[in-house]
Amino acid sequence: MTRGGKRPNAGRTAIIGKEMKIKIPDDIYEQVDENFTGKTIQERIRECLEYGINAKLTNVSNVSEKTYNVVDLFSGAGGLSRGFMDAGFNVVLGVDFDDAALKTFKENHGNAEAMKLDLFDHGNIEKIYDYLIKREIKLDVLVGGPPCQGFSLAGKREEFDKRNVLYSAMVKASKRIKPKVVVLENVPGMLTLYNGAGAKRVREDFEQIGYHVYEPKILYAPEYGIPQIRKRVFFVMTLKDEVQGEFNYPLPELFENEFVTCEDAIGNLPSLVGAKDFSLNQVFDYPSAPTNEYEKYMRKNSNKIYNHTPTKHADETVRLISLVPEGKNYKALPLEELKKRKFKYNEALTRYDSKRPSRTIDTGHRTHFHYKWNRIPTVREAARLQSFPDDFIFYGNKQEQYKQVGNAVPPLLGKAVATKVKELLDNEKN
């Protein structure tokens, strides 16, 4: 035996991959140590990761033969798909590119999975197709709200804003997967801006791949029990070879004198007056029993209040909003205050009206204030005004949570549309 030097085949073969430093909570560390093999903790963590990835790739717990399966593109937090879920559909997958929104989606849609994909790259549609094929999922409904900033009255109205054609990912996904029904929602301006060029293209593209396209319909949120002045346009497409029945949009459920108000929605949440704690993960008890039917609906599956973190405002902001009467905006400030400063937005310092639905919830939440308290609404209050129930918990930092709420389709509006889609599919089955 030769002495000295390195023996043939001695030593370990280096593993090619990423070297990362992460912190692991003590309880998870103990579970990894107990349940996975390996000489070192690094080897056991590696085995744990491999096991978890394989389990996710082969998991079929979200497959159902008893209910209709739904995939949500551009899902965000999943307001539209939550509406479908609450109407009895089986949501199997949400697709978006926002990590915090995907975390929120995953935690609030039963056994649904979340997939991070850039849909500017239409090649990623094949990954969605492969996901469904491997799990033998027959997709019944594809829903989605492509980013609408280009058509929104609140943003730059540029005809060739590339975000306006992201909906074409839905067209290509529909062509590849062939769901029975496609539901696309957007801002009402899509029907009129640039002579309705966007709406016309939606119709032409879906008809070309074999879908019957129903006349788009604008739905007004307060008429469907949502305490918020918000309009959305819905396009519904049905696959000609699969669906013969007629789709009907939901009829309004409430008259104006029956609309759910701001006070109905958020009046019984903790006031946060004098709050000293501005940390993100606070949890509150309900201060009293529900006082109206809307609040009962919001609370029915929850026994705690989450996402109700106050915002610390500058003293000057608090002083100014204290001068604005309920239901008014900066124009109601005393004349001497108006002379001191210029306001850039028509809705600056808008205080909600307790006896009316709120103004449209946006992603910034810096211009609208509580009807009673001198602060902006919390994420939970904004979520209530969007009709997200209290058991729907938002993740990410506070700015990300506000963005998720503001970009969402109100779940109750999604549920109204979903109920009519379900009627259509049920009639096809019978």
Give the H and E element order: HHEHEHEHEHEHEEEHHHHEEHHH
The number of E-state strands comes to 10
Content-based structural category = alpha/beta
Total count of helical runs of at least 4 residues: 14
Largest sheet: 8 strands, mixed
Low-pLDDT ranges: 150-155
In percent terms, what proportion of residues is strand?
A: 5-15%
Cα distance spanning the termini: 82 Å
**Could you tell me the mean pLDDT?**
88
What is the alpha-carbon Rg in Å?
Answer: 25 Å
What is the multimeric organization of the chains shown? single chain
The CATH architecture designation of one domain is: 3-Layer(aba) Sandwich
What would the CATH topology of one domain be? Answer: Rossmann fold
Percent in helix = 25-40%
Could you please describe the fold and organization of this structure?
The protein is an alpha/beta fold and 430 residues long. It contains 14 helices and 10 strands. It has a domain at 69-253 and 411-429: Rossmann fold (3-Layer(aba) Sandwich). The termini are far apart.
Write the layout of secondary structure elements.
Elements: H1 26-35, H2 41-58, E1 69-73, H3 79-86, E2 90-96, H4 99-107, E3 113-116, H5 125-134, E4 141-144, H6 168-177, E5 181-186, H7 197-208, E6 211-213, E7 217-220, E8 231-239, H8 262-266, H9 293-299, H10 315-322, H11 335-340, E9 350-351, E10 368-369, H12 379-385, H13 398-407, H14 411-429
Parallel strand pairs: 1-2, 1-4, 2-3, 4-5, 9-10
Antiparallel strand pairs: 5-8, 6-8, 7-8
Helix pairs in contact: 3-14, 5-6
